[in-house]
Amino acid sequence: MGSFLIRRLAGAFVVLALVSLMSFALIWLVPGDPAAAFLDASATPAQIATLRSALGLDLSLPQQMIGWYGRILSGDLGQSILLNRSVSAALIERLPVTLALAALALAFAVVVGVTAGLVAAVNHNRWPDQAVMTAALLGLSVPDFWLGLVMVLVFAVSLGWLPSGGFTSFTQSPGEWLRCMILPALTLGLVQVGFIARMARASMLDTLGQDYVRTADAKGLAKLRVVLGHALPNALIPILTVIGIVSGALLGGAVIVEQVFSIPGIGRLIVGAIAARDFPVLQGGLLFLAVVYLSINLVVDILYAVVDPRVRLA
Amino acid sequence: MSAAEPLVGRAALRRLLRHRSFMIGGVLVLAMVLVALAADLLTPFDPLRSNIRARLVAPDAAHWFGTDHFGRDILSRVMIGARISLAIGALTAILAGIAGTLSGAVAGFFPRLDQPIMRVMDALMAFPSIVLAMVVSAVLGASLTNVVIALAIATTPHTARIVRASVLLERELDYVSAARSIGAGELTILFKHVLRNAAGPLIVRLTYVFAIAVLAEAALSFVGAGPPPPAASFGSIIAQGRDFMREAPWITVFPGLAIIVCVLGLNLLGDGLRDVLDPRLKF
User: Fold this and answer.
1) Domain count, chain B
2) Which of B128, B134, B268 lies nearest to residue A274, judging by beta carbons?
3) Which of A120, A299, A304, B213 is an S-S bond match for B89, by CB 3.0 to 4.6 Å?
4) Using the beta-carbon criterion (under 8 Å), do A290 and B127 form an inter-chain contact?
5) Cβ pair A30:B246 closer than 8 A
6) ipTM of the complex in this document
């Protein structure tokens, strides 16, 4: 286990170094002068020069890079030009909202997806299987933000059951918070259900074909007991990896879904920065999301090695 | 395998034509492509011309999909939008196909280059792909070309991984040592022989990239990082309709359905291709 951990951490470190380099390099992609791109055409050369030095763009490239790595190692992602405050502070302030949205969506997607996958696998090639697979494929083909808009149309505008958007913090009123989060979490989760159901079905089919399942079957155990007691626990192990994969899609999806429902998370911060060309927020936001994603996957991989010893030796 | 032999053999083609989801997907995609190509002839109205007297008209016999706040015909806009959305999808698949094949093939065939290339791909995959595409497109400046570049950057790493995996398997086979023993160069072996045999999973992947790009373009347009107006894409029509959701939901609903038809068709096509061309992946 020790050597597995060291190898896994070393790999994560290399990727992290590259990820931060890429986030830094983002500013090179800006055609022309990033400072001039942020300010409008009426800006005086003196204003542009001030912003350039505030962004550190007047330094040489190696100096800029050393400065960037030095700052991010101490957790400083620079200053937002637009909000005139620390990017890290703005991101950390909004992280709980985005994480809560993603977590609710994940819980929904895993419960529904695994159940659907299980039903499909047990009824392999019969109608429940085909129904689940068709629904899953449809789910993979729906744009998340459009689904969100349709949800608003149906559940907020027509039926009036839930608010069409906005946000109340959990500490203010847990009930109101949940009402605000249901539609966004459903939207975000539904898009992932299809993928999880497909993977769960494949994993379950694989497990149901194993010798030990046939033995359990042959010794006369009830079918439900064989499926839930013997096959399901092992079939769930690969689902752990799926959670790692899906977490990236959920973080990205949350950014879009926050727009639809006006939820003040990291996504709104990043999208606001796109319109304003607030480059430090874009760089910091990308790096931050990547670090969150890498951390989740690190935890998932370690958990996987704990439940499945074969992984440690691979 | 001789160079003249097609990438998809006759037997595979026959199995594809009997594959139900491949055929359904094929019909859906073909219909979409035909509408996109013939949009100029098919559109009942000029998709860009506004008509103040016909603002926010609900779907009726004249305007099947209704009109928007400028009185523009939504059906015509969706038809023209199909052209831009499909073009972005196809160009992204081509660009990600080239970049992913080159990097994945080199990483898989030359062990020394494997680590450096794949770590870069891992790093790119650490960013949520939709956010990466959004930010890159916005930083480059939203234009059709830049949207394609951004989407290709976001979809290349996974493509490279798939090509690398196939090349790693092929590399160990006898025909590679046979080619080497008769004096074939490494690059010739890789690009003329190995890649041909690794093409199946790549074709499957690129069908999915096409679908992902159509979905992602819509999301990019929705957050304002898509191709700039007046170009209508599925996403930009939905984005414009958002402010009129209550009084004119049809502006939002119909282009969304068009996306679903398109992406569903591509996914079905991809599933069919996967069943026939890539026997390793079965789920």
Assistant:
1) 1
2) B134
3) B213
4) yes
5) no
6) 0.86
